[in-house]
C-alpha cells in the first residue's frame, strides 16, 4: 500500500523565511498549553523556516520556551496561510472616534426592530461576517447610514421634524429621538 501512495506523492518544499505551522501530534501537552491532548491545538505557530537540512527536513525558529529540537520533517509542518489563522479571521477594524475613544467601522445598516427602550438597528461591521443589534446611542457617528437605510426602506420622514429636533438640540440627533419627539408634537408624523 505504501508504495502506491508514495509513487505520486511529492514532499512539500519550503524556502528560508517561509512561515509554517507545526503539528501538535508528537508534542507533549505542556508544549500545547493544555493538560489534555484532545483539547489542545492541532497546529501551533506560525514559525519561520531558518534552514533546509537534507531532503524534506527543515529547521524552524522556535521560541526558547518550547525546548524542542528545531528540525522537523515535512510531514509535521504545513504552510501558514494568514486567512486560516483565527486571529486574522477575527480581525476587527478599529478607528479613533472624535471623542477620543476607539470604535469599529460600520459597513451598513441592514434592519431595525422596536424594543421597549427604543429602536435597535442590525449593523453589518467591516471585517466581520456576523451582524449585531445596536441601539441608536451606539451609532451616533454613522447617522448618514441610518438616514440612508430609512430612506431606502421607504419610511416617511418629514424634513421639518428633523429640523425641529436638531434646533431643540435634544442630544443624539436622529431617528430614535425624532421618533420620541414625534409622539409629543402634532406637527411631526410617525416614522414607522
UniProtKB/TrEMBL annotation:
<dbReference type="InterPro" id="IPR000953">
    <property type="entry name" value="Chromo/chromo_shadow_dom"/>
</dbReference>
<dbReference type="InterPro" id="IPR023780">
    <property type="entry name" value="Chromo_domain"/>
</dbReference>
<dbReference type="InterPro" id="IPR056924">
    <property type="entry name" value="SH3_Tf2-1"/>
</dbReference>
<dbReference type="InterPro" id="IPR016197">
    <property type="entry name" value="Chromo-like_dom_sf"/>
</dbReference>
<dbReference type="Pfam" id="PF24626">
    <property type="entry name" value="SH3_Tf2-1"/>
</dbReference>
<protein>
    <recommendedName>
        <fullName>Chromo domain-containing protein</fullName>
    </recommendedName>
</protein>
<feature type="domain" description="Chromo">
    <location>
        <begin position="104"/>
        <end position="149"/>
    </location>
</feature>
<dbReference type="Pfam" id="PF00385">
    <property type="entry name" value="Chromo"/>
</dbReference>
Amino acid at each position: 500500500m505504501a508504495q502506491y501512495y508514495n509513487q505520486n506523492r511529492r514532499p512539500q518544499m519550503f524556502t528560508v523565511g517561509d512561515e509554517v505551522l507545526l503539528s501538535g501530534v508528537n508534542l507533549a501537552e505542556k508544549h500545547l498549553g493544555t493538560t489534555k491532548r484532545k483539547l489542545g491545538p492541532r497546529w501551533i505557530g506560525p514559525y519561520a523556516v531558518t534552514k533546509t537540512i537534507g531532503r524534506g527536513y527543515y529547521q524552524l525558529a522556535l521560541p526558547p520556551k518550547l525546548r524542542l529540537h528545531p528540525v522537523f520533517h515535512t510531514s509535521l509542518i504545513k504552510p501558514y496561510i494568514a486567512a486560516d489563522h483565527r486571529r486574522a479571521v477575527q480581525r476587527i477594524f478599529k478607528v479613533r472616534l472624535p471623542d477620543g475613544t476607539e470604535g469599529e467601522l460600520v459597513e451598513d445598516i441592514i434592519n431595525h426592530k422596536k424594543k421597549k427602550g427604543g429602536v435597535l438597528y442590525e449593523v453589518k461591521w467591516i471585517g466581520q461576517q456576523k451582524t449585531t443589534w445596536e441601539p441608536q446611542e451606539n451609532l451616533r457617528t454613522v447617522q448618514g447610514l441610518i438616514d440612508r437605510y430609512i430612506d431606502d426602506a421607504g419610511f416617511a420622514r418629514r424634513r421639518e421634524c428633523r429640523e425641529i429636533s436638531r434646533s431643540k438640540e435634544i442630544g443624539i440627533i436622529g431617528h430614535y429621538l425624532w421618533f420620541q419627539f414625534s409622539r409629543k408634537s402634532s406637527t411631526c408624523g410617525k416614522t414607522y
